[in-house]
Amino acid sequence: MVGEPLVRIRDFRMDFGNQTVIRDLSFDVHAGETFGFLGSNGSGKTTTLRALLGIYQPTAGTLHIDGKVFEPRDGARLGYLPEERGLYKKESVLDVMVYFGRLKGLSRQKAKDWSRTYLERVSLTDKATARLDKLSGGQQQKIQLGVTIMNDPELLILDEPTQGFDPVNRRLLMDIIEDQKRAGATVIMVTHQMEEVERLCDRVLLLKNGTAEAYGTIEDVQDRYGATIIRLQHSGLLPASDLYDITLAEHDYAELAPRAGTAEADILRELVRHGVAVRSFTTARTSLEEIFIRVYGEQNQPVGA
Amino acid sequence: MARHNLNTVIGFEFFRTVKKRRFWITTLAIPVALAIVFALIIISNQSTSTTAKAQKNAHLSFTYTDDSGLVTDTLAATYGGTKTTDGARAIAEVKTGTVDAYFVFPVDPVTQPVRVYGTDKGIFENGKYDAVAKQILIAAAQQKISSPQLTALAQGNVTIKSQTYRDGKVSGGLNAVIPPLLFLLIFYVSIILLGNQMLSSTLEEKENRVTEMILTTLNPTTLIIGKVISLFMVGLMQMLIFALPVIIGYLFFRSNLSLPDLDLSHLSLEPGPMIVGALLLLGGFILFTGTLVAVGAVMPTVKEAGPIFASLMVLIFVPFYVVSLIVSDPHALIVQIFTYFPYSAPVTAMLRNGFGSLTPLESATVIAELFILGFIALRLAVHLFRYGSIEYSKKLSIRNTLRRRNHA
Asked: Is B390 in the same domain as B279?
């Protein structure tokens, strides 16, 4: 699944005036993978994407797509859904879609056919000739996504794609992204919806205060931050031990966090040795949402754009 | 790909403008208004002509006294006049309505007024008294001259063809002045018609938050050039639509509209001034377009860009305050300043070019200045759009934007 890096960012720093928003950020996104770019509001995600796409000029470092700095002439291979949404609101849906389709290299007829097929998929066929500003916010979002994925881009960059969608349309959108992924697109996704990340992403990067707080597969991040949690139904007093920390203790239920290098079986033996009657002993990984809250919950002052 | 994108932008921008109902309402408002005015003029002219003819030939019952000795009894009688010697009685007859009018022809009708006393027949009908009195004097003068040729000359019915020379060669005179000044007219019309659209052309991307989509799909230079070309096409179409009623009026209703019979074959199209005029027009258009697009890229809304737009508009009208100096003393300091100050240069130079006072060196200097500054302004506009339009609702810091490396 993982190939050569399609996106390579090295030692990226971005200053706005005297404020450093991003410092020494380095990461790769491999061709064909879906990459979750995570962080709290103002942690610098959008700034990084804009610098990657040449909209911002980086203060230092290199940001390459396919081995070179992105130029708009490569736009036909890119699908970018920016955080700041907007299209030509006074024009009709079809006119705008065909215009962007043409700019992405499609012929007028192909752009028109593609647009009609897409509108049918997202249940907006009857809106083809309507002006964009006559559509609801969610409907406009669907059109914007359609424009983004026209001409099957090789690299899809989605900045909070599900923002403003109801659960039904969020599911539809996820299906569309999955289709793109199956078709071979590399996807970089900025989102605060951790269930989307767990469903779609192969690897993630957690950005905090302009630096990479964590970077790797979801399992890597879970291992680093939450590792495994042991959920225990028991009777008898839980003993203190060097093998684990008691993170939650109720009447007959407890959660234990194994210390580094401790095997789950050793913990079970330790409990039994101390006379704890164990009725249920299950292990679970900490969810990304819990990790996100743990990482960013302590952050009082957001940094950057 | 760049050419394909340029064509795509031009097509999109042009058709989305001309497809709008509002565009046609505003564009057709002027020709429709002109057509209405022309129709009113035709109706009015027909009515005036009929009335004038009727008044001129009106048969009145009037009395008159003639101290000039020009009006014969026979002549007066043909218009219904009877000579009298008692002015007071004649006025009394007018008051009672026994006669329509009483005319008093003075000793010298050229320097003294002809007095007319008439019964009031309404504002429009009253005009016939003057018309008849005047017609009697004209007929009397014609009788005295006794020559149709002299009569025509006395009325100024002469045609003069003049020939002037400059540097030993035939010069076109006024007929050579008009054609280069047409470029000035085109410049004014295009800037007035398109200025506001140039200003708002990039603001739309900002206000609609479409900048990021555009900047990652299309080279900003292509976008801006495409917009400028499409605006020019729209402006050209508007000019043709505006001109249509005038052309139709001239070709088919010239006499009804009392339009002068312009003999266009007399216009002298001298290559030098025509080429200079065209280049000044193009250079001025590029400079103003680049500047307005750059202003649009800096300002967050059309409203906030308004004062700068107004200043630029003032600068294209300012040279007309010194137009007499431009014609009579082109080397005056103020004329020289206006000739070289970039935003007053196009109008001043085009005026001087039309009147033949712009030397070849001055022409070359101003044209070079306009083109160079115009391309700098366009380049700046592209740069500001690329790095500034992402600021969306914020007013752009030009200094910060210019610090960024230019990739455009």
From this structure: yes
